[in-house]
Amino acid sequence: MIRPELLAPAGDLPRLKTAVHFGADAVYIGGKKFSLRSRASNFDLADIEEGVRYAHSHQAKLYVTVNMIPHQEDLQGLHDYLRALDQIGVDAVIVASLYIAQVARQISQRMEVHLSTQQSSANIETLDFYKAMGVDRVVLARECSLEDITQIVEGQSMPIEVFIHGGMCVNVSGRCTLSNYMTLRDANRGGCAQSCRWKYFCLDENLQPVHDENTLFSMSSKDLNATVVLSDLIQRGVSSLKIEGRMKSEYYLATVVGAYRRLIDDLLFGKDEHESVERCNLELAKAENRETFDGFFLNKPSAKGHLYDKNGTGITQEFLATVISYDPLNQMATIEVRNHFSKGWLCEVFGPNTDHLQFAVTDIINSDQELTDRVYKPMEIVQIKIPFKVMPEDFIRKVRI
Amino acid sequence: MNIFVPVHSHKQLESYSLSNVDAVIFSTVFCSTKTQHPSTVSELEILSKKANQLHLPWYLSINRMILQSEWSDLLSEILQINEYLPTGYIVSDLGVLHYLKKNYPLKTIVLQTDTTITNAYDVEVLLSMGADIVALAKELTLSEVTQIVQRFGSRVLISGFGHQCMSTSNRPLMSNYFNHIQKDVEVMYKRFTLQEEGRTEGYYAIQDTHGFHIFTSSVLEIFDEVEKLAENGLGHLMIDSLFVDDDTILKVIQAFKKEIDIEYAKSEISKRYSLSKALYYTATSAIKVVSE
Fold first, then answer.
1. What is the pTM for the complete model shown?
2. Which ipTM did the prediction report?
3. Could you say which of A296, A328, A351 is where a domain stops?
4. For B122, which of A39, A99, A305 is closest by C-beta distance?
5. B278: chain A residues, CB-CB within 8 Å
6. Same domain, A136 and A76
7. Domain that residue A337 falls in
8. Counting beta carbons within 10 angstroms of the beta carbon of residue B261, is it exposed (0 to 12), middle (13 to 18) or buried (19 or more)?
């Protein structure tokens, strides 16, 4: 089996570093211009340059999304921006507009051009069309089944990228204007209001209600989770496995990237698939704030692929701190606090080289060097006793009992 | 300026022909979405013969994403339908465009993606890649449409009338919902109305064999604007008949053909339908600002 790329999102430099640290082979980010996800903390050129340096120094690649569907007014400065990305050393741009794809190709033969899922590519003929334009890679439509993906990989030569985890548009990507009409925000320019996740009364042709008053109609999709087909995707030769979520937290990224890194490696090393997938899903559950399902890979989504009663967008408070350093002599770790915790809590440390070890919080020394029973100030640097070796940049989370 | 109108029956075909529409659009169950009355291939054969007898140009609508696993079925259907002598095809999948242009170079191919064709540069690229006519995105303002029409008008199509499609999903969302609430409701090709909890307007929606589609509550009407766009060189206009009765569509055709007074047409149509300018005067560039 060929080792596929694990491609992770990042909304800012700390998240980019986390994604690389936890095993991403490549990271995609949005610049300040021409990118969707207007709410994500997008990168300016200096940040992108630092991101490229960091990624390359860790043998990872950096892709920049230039994936808005631009109106005429949005295109000012495009050439300069793409030239700057090329000069900085960005490995690829992810584009949705064919014009932007063409300009990017003209500007650089080095920087790859990846075609976004916003163009809903789902067949070989479409990929041949893009190849003729000079596109290097295509991100397939999320509507593709495992059978479609298999035929596409076997039937043409361009590398393909497939989403394996994260939020899903319920509508065909790039073909939805619900936000435009309902909120005057353009989803194809980063303004999606997620109107699909709202609740709707439903009336029949005679305008008689046919909905359930307690469970209104909604198009809210569960998130994608491809663990059950990951082995198939790897065996079939998919080049890049992509995690969605440039707006997701550092903790989410650490957990999800780490879990998929381990699953991919386990599968490549021939470990038991069932056990590996089960372990991965246990880990993923620690970061999910929305239920997941297997998308279109095996079947067209049924009612089980939707959230009718809740959207599940609650913010997890499980993430407690990151490790800065560890003193093995005194078994004291210096950590940066993210969420409050107290003496007596059962915690777990995880990192790329730290294997989910648990401990109970006993001694806590706050930033004033005083013993305390509780810490609650985000970003405070404190020391806690951990009875085993931990590594810088490991994450600490609460254990659910 | 050529006027395109979807057709679903012999009766419509004859009356639209008498109204001098420039082209009609046929749909089939396999190829087409966003219609309540797609034909079987056999029905299409009969319709197409009639259109050919009337010397009425006709197009087949292949207005959906074609998955690789459906590709061979698509080719079989195109092979058969091509024998019925279509003028061209209206497609939304670039792979279908690519295939048709290679294999049927004399057919006129209209690329209609609904949303993604939003600037003159992209129009230029798509025309150079094989599209004969491109349909502009429906979220463009009149000002943006005018700019593109001034450059490529003879090869541009816009929507001039009808409920506008707001979204398309490949999921059977309506039957999924009724399964979830355990209610036995027939959904296929039926018109439903969705009304968001906090709003008064209702959006029409239909489920077909390929997925689920939602449409605007009001009907787009731009008679006056089209007159000016035609002066700027607009080549092609779509009148969408979905959820609109035949008499109204005839009035719309006559109004665009200037066979009846536009104000009279508006007045008559507004008795039956809520009219709007959709997004032609409403820029949808607002974004949600979130403090970091």
1. 0.93
2. 0.94
3. A296
4. A99
5. 181
6. yes
7. 319-398
8. exposed
